[in-house]
Each structure stands twice: as structure tokens, then as C-alpha cells.
Amino acid sequence: MRPSARTVFLTAVCLACALGTVAPQTVAQPVTTPASSADLRAAYATPQDIAEGKKVAAASCAQCHGMDGASTADGVPHIAGQRAPYLHLESLVYKNGGRGTTPMSNAVKFLSDDALMKVSAYYGSLDPVPPVSTRAAPAGKSAPAKLDPVSAGKAAAAGCSGCHGETGISKMAGMPSLVGLDPKYFVAAMNAYKNGQRKNEVMKTLAAGLGETDLNNLALFYALQKAAPAQTPSPGDKAAGKAAAAGCAGCHGDAGVSTNPATPSIAGQDAEYFSEAMKAYKAGSRADPAMQGAVADLDDKKIRDMAAHYAAQAPQMPKVRKPLTVAEWVERCDRCHGTNGNSTDPRSPALAGQRADYLERVMRAYQKETRKSAAMATMSHVLTEAEIEGIAAYYSRQRPRSVVYLILPAAK
Ligand code: HEC
Ligand code: HEC
Ligand code: HEC
Ligand code: HEC
Questions:
Q1: What phi, psi does 30 have (nearest 5°)?
Q2: How does pLDDT run across 159-204, given as a tens digit for each residue?
Q3: Which of 40, 71, 196, 315 suits a disulfide with 267, CB 3.0-4.6 Å?
Q4: If you ran DSSP here, which 8-state letter would residue 33 be given?
């Protein structure tokens, strides 16, 4: 007998499966959110429903998903052992066009809600597909381990430290400090050297060998270093420089810490580099419309005094998010998707053992909002491409477990 709808609670029990383990392992917490009966119908499916669902699968789904729910093609997810109520809900979303027009939406367009419930129950009842790592690895190809962006930036910065200091704090007069620079300005400056807009032969040669990802990693590395003023001399009259710099605050911030990512912070900058830059703007050899007006009436003494003033100001770390490690992300994702992606909530998909290419595609779809979900939107917006790849690789390697929902009698 089916319990009445409104007071139903489900308990999920994960069973070790598919990989030969016999003993059932209970790794689940009870699902304590009451759900509407329509949402959970596939969890109440009878063996007869499942048998009927198998026929629907043979006629309408097997050509792409196989009878075993194990995908063999890029872009097609494994659905074996996926939570049946989730499969049902997603099938309805496809049917209503909510995930766009795809081969998948055409496949379910003409099927009744009842047929979709049953076929979902069928695929949900199957053993999940073992993760990639337990299958034969493709011969001879093992992808090199990828560094996270900050570590990659640090590695690339080794070649810059001789001139710019180990952590971007200049120790050599004439060399700019790189701490406290917004990544956006940093990347723009490097590209300006690359395309010749900013003229410096050394930097041009160095920048030429760096791609967009390298530049982003380098910029991130320097932005995350503890900021301190350049350790170089700054001759000049600070007090006079402060008075002369009143007109610069509007763009560069009160104490030389800019709030506009396209305008460089100049607090703590090496004084000699500062002066050379000002003279270059004045001479027109470094062209910039914003700076052109600012330097027009300045003589060498004023420039030197301002350089001393700004060199004495405290640089700040720009506001950038330090990327989380995959482990830190997984901790957050597992709150809804279950331990190592083995969801026990019937409406949350399991991620464990899913194809990495599919997981990546879906996260990008949430990001672009071509697939909409209130639960997923906030998290996916901040993910970087490197994080998406790392998270997808992690979940695709986790061992998937099937789950059996026990229906408890309704509380009186
Ligand atoms: C022509 C190939 C094709 C057929 C037939 C097909 N599917 Fe799919 N299915 C796909 C593809 C491709 C995707 C991934 C689409 C995307 O990225 O949104 C998918 C995705 C899904 C998903 C989403 C899984 C998830 O993890 O979110 C479900 C559920 C699903 N299919 C169920 C079915 C069912 C049930 C049938 C039969 C009624 C079926 N599919 C028939 C190709 C197919
Ligand atoms: C041989 C010394 C040298 C090396 C090595 C070097 N740089 Fe430079 N860098 C300079 C000099 C000199 C300037 C100032 C050039 C100018 O006047 O435009 C500069 C300017 C810059 C600027 C612009 C700073 C600003 O405030 O606008 C950035 C960014 C930069 N370098 C990044 C790097 C990175 C990243 C590396 C390593 C890949 C590197 N540099 C390696 C000498 C060097
Ligand atoms: C209208 C806005 C504006 C004003 C006012 C302004 N700046 Fe700038 N400044 C900029 C921008 C934008 C850049 C970056 C230009 C580039 O990429 O070459 C810059 C660059 C600089 C640089 C080079 C920094 C580096 O890291 O290479 C120095 C030094 C500088 N400004 C000092 C000053 C001083 C001193 C004043 C006041 C006398 C001043 N600026 C006034 C917008 C302004
Ligand atoms: C607040 C709960 C919650 C959190 C936290 C959460 N998710 Fe989800 N996730 C969901 C729900 C609910 C769905 C189903 C949404 C839908 O219908 O599109 C989902 C769907 C997904 C899917 C689609 C799976 C498929 O088979 O199509 C992926 C991939 C995913 N989440 C990854 C993640 C990752 C990675 C994180 C951590 C960065 C995360 N989720 C965090 C609730 C959550």
C-alpha cells in the first residue's frame, strides 16, 4: 500500500554494487525533506512498472543510452543507477523544452508522463557504470598532471624574479614591483608589450612566449602575494610630492590604491620606474590618453617628489578570489550531491562515475544559463575553466553506488 502523499519521508540506503562487493553498506542519511508525490513517483515504482519501463527503454532510449544505461559516446550521460525521481524530473524538463532542442528532447517529446516515470524507474534500478579508473586505461596515453592556476603562475614567475623580485616586490631600482596590480591591468600590460603598443624589447621578448592562460596564471599569482613597498631608494620630497599628487587621486585612489581594474595601483611602486614611466608619458613614447593630460605640466622635480610620495604608500592586494582546490569544492558540492557524489536525495543527481565530458558540459551550461537551476546557478557562476575540469575529473573517478529508497510508514 502506498503511504499518503504529504507525509511521506524516504530513507535512502546505498548498496555497494556493480563492483562485486557483497555486503550492503549504509552510507546514507535519511532524506528528511517532504516532497510532493508527483516528484517522487518513480521511487515508488513497482516491479511491474519497471518491467514496462524496460520496454519503453528498448523502443525509445537504448539506441543512445543502451539497455544498460552505460554511455559509449561523448556528450551522452550514463543513466544507469541514477536516482529514478531525478531521471523522471529531467525527462519532463527535456519534454517541455527546458534543456533546449537536442536529440534527447526529440526522444521524449511524444512519450507520456507515465511512460517516462516507468522508464526512469527502469534505468534507476540498474547497477551504475564503474568509474573510468577501474576500466582499461587507453593505451599509452596518460595526461600530464595539470597544475592549479596559482601553482602554474608561480612556476612561470620563476623567470621573472631576477628583475621583479621573488614575489613581485622589486629590489632593483628601475624595475617595477608587480604586487598590488589588478590582474586585468597586468594582462593588458603584457599584451601591450606583445603587440608593441608598449615599447620594451626585454618585456616584448618575454611576453611573446606566453599565452592567455599563462598570463592569467601569472597575474593571479602576483595578485595573491602579500603586498609591500618596493625595497629600492626613493630620493625626493615626499611632502611636496603629496601636495602635487592631489589631482591623481581621482583615478589612482587616495593613497595610490586604484579601485578601477584598468588603472594601475601605484602605491609602493619603485620610484625610478615611476619617474621613467611619467617621463615616457610626457615624451609620448608611452601613449595613454588618460595620462597625457596628467603629466603635461610636470617638471622633473615634481615627478621625483611624487615618486617618493607614492613609494612610501602601502600597496594592497587587489580583490581577487583565490581559486579553491578540487577538494574544497567537492566538500561544498557533496552537501547536495552526497558523499563523493553519491546522492541520497532522490531529486539530486549522483555525480560519481559520470562521464567527465558530460559533467564539464553541464557545468558550462549552468554557467551560461542554457540549463537553469536555482540550486546550481550561484555555485557554477564563479567556477573557472580549470576548476570545472578538475571537479569533473574528480567525480568521474569516484565509485558510484546504487541506492534503494525504503518507504517508511506515514507519521500519524
Ligand atoms: C538520440 C539519442 C538519445 C535518445 C534516443 C535518448 N537520449 Fe537521453 N540523452 C541524450 C543526450 C545527448 C543527453 C545529454 C543532453 C544534454 O546535454 O542535455 C541525454 C540526457 C538524458 C538525461 C539527463 C541525464 C542527466 O544526468 O541529467 C536523461 C534523464 C535521459 N537522457 C533519459 C532518456 C530516456 C528516458 C530516453 C528514452 C525515452 C532517452 N534519454 C533517449 C541522448 C538520447
Ligand atoms: C631582464 C629583466 C626583466 C625580466 C626577466 C622580466 N621583466 Fe617585466 N619588466 C622589466 C622592465 C625593465 C619593465 C619596465 C618596462 C617599461 O618601462 O615599460 C618591466 C615591466 C613589466 C610589467 C609592467 C608593469 C607595470 O606596472 O606596468 C609587467 C606586468 C611585467 N614586467 C611582467 C613580467 C613578467 C610576468 C615576467 C616574467 C615572465 C617579467 N616581467 C620578466 C624587466 C624585466
Ligand atoms: C584620468 C585618469 C588618470 C589620472 C588623472 C592620472 N592617471 Fe596615471 N594612469 C591612468 C591610467 C589609465 C594608467 C595606465 C595607462 C597605461 O596602460 O599605460 C595610468 C598609469 C600611470 C603610471 C604608470 C604605472 C605603471 O605601473 O606602469 C603612473 C606612474 C601614473 N599613472 C601616475 C600618475 C600620477 C602621478 C598622476 C597625477 C599627476 C596620474 N597618474 C593621474 C589614469 C590616470
Ligand atoms: C544546494 C544544493 C546543490 C549544491 C551545493 C550543488 N548542487 Fe549540483 N545540483 C543540484 C540539483 C538540485 C541539481 C539538479 C538541477 C537540475 O534540474 O538541473 C544539480 C545538478 C548538477 C549537475 C547535473 C548532473 C546531471 O546528471 O545532469 C551537475 C554536474 C552538478 N549539479 C554539479 C555540481 C557541482 C560540481 C557542485 C559544487 C561546485 C554542485 N553541483 C553543488 C543541487 C546542488
A1: -65, 145
A2: 999 999 999 999 999 999 999 999 999 999 999 999 999 999 999 9
A3: 315
A4: S
Pick the CATH number of 151-311 from 1.10.357.10, 1.10.730.10, 3.30.1300.10, 1.10.760.10: 1.10.760.10
Distances (CA, A) of 221 to 54, 78, 153, 269: 54, 38, 5, 18
Q: Provide the CATH topology of domain 5-131+325-407.
A: Cytochrome Bc1 Complex; Chain D, domain 2 (1.10.760)
Measured distance CA(196)–CA(201) in Å, rounded: 9
Q: pLDDT confidence of 16, banded at 50, 70, 90?
A: very low
SS3 for 54? helix
Structure pTM? 0.73
Average pLDDT, the chain: 88
The set of protein residues with a Cβ atom below 6 angstroms from ligand 4 is: 77, 329, 332-333, 335-337, 348-349, 351, 359, 362-363, 371, 373, 375-376, 379, 391
- Residue of 83, 99, 332, 337 with the most ligand 4 atoms within 8 Å of its CB, for mutation: 337
Class of residue 162 by CB neighbours under 10 A (exposed 0-12, middle 13-18, buried 19+) = exposed
